C-alpha cells in the first residue's frame, strides 16, 4: 500500500491509482483493436477518480504514451501524408485552444462533436468532406482545439479516416500516429500553461506501462480480425460515441440547470 501511495499525488488515493492503471490496460486494448473507444472510456474513469483540474492534462499524457505504443507496434501500416497534414492542422488547433482554455462551455463542444460524428457516419458525404490535404488539415485543427477542453477527440480523426476507405491495419495505424501528434501537442500546451506534470510522473509511468501491455494484446486481436467485422465494429463504435457525447452534454446541462 505504501508503494501505491507513493505513485499518486497527495489528492489521489492508492485505490484510485490502481483502478486507473487497470483501466489503462483494458482501454488501450480496446483502442488497439478497433482504433478508438479506449481514450473516451479512460477519460470517464479518470473523471470519476481524479481531481477535475488534472483529468484532461493527465489523460493527454497517458494517451500520448498509449498511442506511441500502438504506433510503435503498427508503424509499417501508417499512411504518412495523412498524418503530416493532420499534425500541421493540430499545431494551429492546440495553439488556439491553449489561449482560451476552459473559456467555452464544455456541453456545447460535446454536443457539436457528437452531431458531427453521427452526420459524418450516417449522413450524405458533402464534397468538402472528401479525403484530401484540406480535410486532413481541418480535422487536425478542430480535433486539437477541442481536445484542450474535454480530452478524448479520437472519434473526430476516426470519422475522417472512415471516409478514406483504408483497410483495417492502415486505419488503426494511421489513427494512432494522428493521436500521437494530437496528444503530444496537447501535453506540450499544458506544460506551457503551467500544469505540474512532475507531481504525476510516477502514476503516469504506471499508466503508460499498463497501456503498452494493453496495446500489444489489442494489436494481436486486430490482426486476427476479418476485414468486414472490423468495418462493422468501427462504424458501430463511432455511432455509439456520437450518441454518448450528445447524452453527456444533455445530462451536464440538466445537472447545472
UniProtKB/TrEMBL annotation:
GO cellular component: plasma membrane
Keywords: Cell membrane, Membrane, Transmembrane, Transmembrane helix
Coiled coil spans: none
Family label: Belongs to the 4-toluene sulfonate uptake permease (TSUP) (TC 2.A.102) family.
Lineage summary: Bacteria, Pseudomonadati, Pseudomonadota, Alphaproteobacteria, Parvularculales
Subcellular location: Cell membrane; Membrane
InterPro entries xrefs: TM_pro_TauE-like, TSUP/Inactive_protease-like
Protein name stated in the entry: Probable membrane transporter protein
Annotated membrane topology: Multi-pass membrane protein
Organism field: Amphiplicatus metriothermophilus
Domain of life, source organism: Bacteria
Xref: Pfam families: TauE
Major subcellular location class: membrane
Transmembrane parts of this sequence: 12-34, 40-66, 78-102, 108-124, 136-158, 200-222, 234-254
Amino acid at each position: 500500500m505504501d508503494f501505491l501511495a507513493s505513485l499518486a499525488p497527495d489528492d489521489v488515493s492508492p485505490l484510485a491509482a490502481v483502478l486507473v492503471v487497470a483501466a489503462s490496460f483494458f482501454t488501450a486494448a480496446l483502442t488497439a483493436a478497433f482504433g478508438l473507444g479506449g481514450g473516451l472510456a479512460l477519460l470517464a474513469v479518470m473523471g470519476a477518480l481524479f481531481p477535475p483540474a488534472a483529468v484532461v492534462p493527465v489523460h493527454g499524457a497517458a494517451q500520448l504514451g498509449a498511442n506511441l505504443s500502438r504506433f510503435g507496434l503498427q508503424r509499417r501500416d501508417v499512411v504518412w501524408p495523412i498524418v503530416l497534414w493532420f499534425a500541421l492542422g493540430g499545431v494551429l488547433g492546440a495553439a488556439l485552444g491553449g489561449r482560451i482554455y476552459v473559456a467555452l462551455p464544455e456541453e456545447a463542444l460535446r454536443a457539436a462533436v457528437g452531431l458531427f460524428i453521427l452526420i459524418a457516419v450516417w449522413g450524405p458525404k458533402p464534397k468538402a468532406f472528401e479525403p484530401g490535404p484540406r480535410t486532413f488539415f481541418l480535422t487536425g485543427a478542430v480535433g486539437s482545439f477541442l481536445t484542450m477542453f474535454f480530452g478524448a477527440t479520437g472519434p473526430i480523426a476516426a470519422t475522417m479516416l472512415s471516409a478514406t476507405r483504408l483497410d483495417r491495419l492502415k486505419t488503426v495505424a494511421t489513427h494512432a500516429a494522428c493521436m500521437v501528434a494530437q496528444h503530444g501537442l496537447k501535453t506540450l500546451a499544458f506544460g506551457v500553461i503551467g500544469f505540474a506534470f512532475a507531481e504525476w510522473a510516477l502514476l503516469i509511468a504506471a499508466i503508460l506501462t499498463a497501456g503498452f501491455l494493453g496495446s500489444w494484446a489489442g494489436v494481436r486481436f486486430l490482426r486476427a480480425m476479418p476485414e468486414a467485422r472490423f468495418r462493422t465494429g468501427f462504424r458501430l463504435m463511432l455511432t455509439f460515441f456520437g450518441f454518448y457525447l450528445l447524452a453527456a452534454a444533455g445530462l451536464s446541462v440538466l445537472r447545472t440547470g
